[in-house]
Amino acid sequence: QLSLVESGGGLVQPGGSLRLSCATTGFTLDDFDIGWFRQVPGKEREGVSCIIPSGDFANYAHDVKGRFTISRDNAKNMVYLQMSSLKPEDTGVYYCAADWSPDSNMCTLAQGQYHIWGQGTQVTVSS
Question: What b/e readout covers 19-42, taking b as 16+ CB neighbours within 10 angstroms?
Answer without folding.
Answer: ebbbbbeebebeebbbbbbbeeee
